[in-house]
Design brief:
mainly beta; Neuraminidase; four-stranded antiparallel sheet; 3 helices; globular; binds calcium ion
Length: 415
């Protein structure tokens, strides 16, 4: 075991200098620090699933993987503000000061600022915590929540009349006492939905997964799986979606060819839609999404399939298919993501933060003005926790949700 850890640490440090132009070259001292941090993390937390996988396809763009590892100048402290949440998946900040939290196998609860966890909110659909993959996923508040009390939920359940798992995007209203859901409306029924994001105009972007081999859905315009979808708040497809006139296409499709995208956020300056998706085994990708574009899965991939076999003979590039801005081998297995836009942690302004599940880390990415990754920092690794979601609070601090049977909400503030 020790030998494997050393070998893994050594290969990580060797990979770091192979950075392309654009990123500043790390000093020997920085490399030594990075190596020591990687080593410590692996020894303390153990080698996560796929982390020992040494499959490393070559990048095709500058700084497309292993961009210069950075250490933040931002001094910060981490406090646990709530615990005892059973496999929490996502959270949102209510105007009351409470947080609305989904728990994967249960439903929906609130958490008060003092950490008190409520009973289950009634009227929430029944879900099962199946294979650690399915159940209650995302929750967001409507932009006009203070006036209309509307929330949106993404979840997967198995109904008696259905042979297989069914995904739902629904809207509902949260009662003023935050104890009950009413006005339940199904917006979409179909493939596994992960995240929901509301645009300034009120429309909803939805990420859906194609995780069933042989991955026939992600490239099929007729299927809503393995897609970025764009819908109205009544569930209908946006009239300006790119494939509304394409015969047999699902009109909700906005972009295609993604596998298991779980992270989504708008860039605070450009307004562009960014997502992170998990490939089966290595090759997790950061993508900037444009309408009508094909992000390649499973035709091209920087990862391998779960059985270790190459996807499409290891092809990583093909005309007509988009290259990821950035990719990770081995897997980090990302979940929630946000751009930090607050003033409380100024050194982190406009950075991407994304939670790693098997990678047990909070990744911070610095982007250049032209949208390339110029620095990657790995935070919270000393805690050895699967990080399920990260959001910016209304107080300008960062909040992180850990995913296990005793899930916590962590608050990151300046120190
Ligand atoms: Ca891709």
């Amino acid at each position: 075991m020790k030998r494997m850890l050393l070998a893994l640490g050594a290969s990580l440090v060797l990979a770091t200098p192979a950075l392309a132009q654009g990123a500043p070259k790390p000093t020997p001292e920085q490399l030594a620090k990075t190596y020591a941090e990687d080593q410590l993390s692996l020894e303390k937390c153990g080698v996560p699933r796929n982390a020992a996988d040494d499959y490393r396809p070559a990048p095709l763009l500058p700084d497309q993987t292993r961009a210069h590892r950075i250490t933040s100048s931002q001094a910060f402290k981490v406090e646990s503000i709530a615990s005892g949440l059973v496999n929490p998946w996502a959270f949102a900040f209510l105007p009351s000061g409470n947080m609305l939290v989904t728990t994967r196998g249960e439903g929906l609860r609130t958490v008060a600022p003092d950490g008190k966890v409520s009973d289950l909110i009634t009227g929430t659909p029944a879900v099962k915590n199946k294979f650690r993959l399915f159940g209650m996923h995302d929750v967001i508040l409507d932009r006009d929540f203070p006036a209309n009390r509307t929330i949106y939920l993404a979840y997967v359940t198995t109904l008696p009349e259905d042979a297989s798992d069914t995904g739902y995007i629904v809207s509902a209203k949260l009662s003023p006492d935050e104890r009950n859901l009413t006005d339940y409306t199904i917006l979409r029924k179909g493939p596994v939905p992960r995240r929901i994001l509301q645009a300034k105009d009120g429309s909803l972007f939805v990420l859906t997964a194609d995780i069933v081999t042989p991955y026939v859905s992600a490239q099929s315009l007729a299927s809503g799986a393995g897609k970025v979808l764009h819908i109205n708040t009544d569930g209908t497809a946006r009239a300006d979606n790119p494939f509304v006139a394409t015969p047999n296409a699902d009109p909700a499709v906005y972009a295609l060819g993604v596998r298991d995208p779980q992270s989504m956020a708008f860039h605070p300056v450009t307004g562009d839609l960014w997502i992170i998706e998990n490939e089966p085994r290595g090759g997790d990708e950061l993508n900037r999404i444009e309408p009508g574009k094909n992000y390649g899965f499973p035709l091209i991939s920087f990862g391998r399939d779960n059985d270790g076999k190459l996807l499409n003979n290891g092809l990583t590039n093909k005309d007509g298919l988009e290259q990821p801005v950035y990719f990770w081998t081995p897997s980090v297995a990302f979940s929630g993501m946000t751009f930090y836009t607050g003033d409380k942690l100024p050194a982190w302004k406009n950075s991407i933060f994304a939670g790693g599940l098997s990678g047990m880390q909070l990744v911070r990415l610095e982007l250049s003005t032209d949208g390339r990754v110029v620095g990657e920092e790995k935070l919270l690794r000393d805690r050895c926790r699967r990080i399920r979601d990260v959001r910016q609070g209304p107080d300008g601090l960062l909040y992180v949700l850990t995913d296990d049977a005793n899930g916590e909400i962590l608050r990151i503030s300046p120190n």
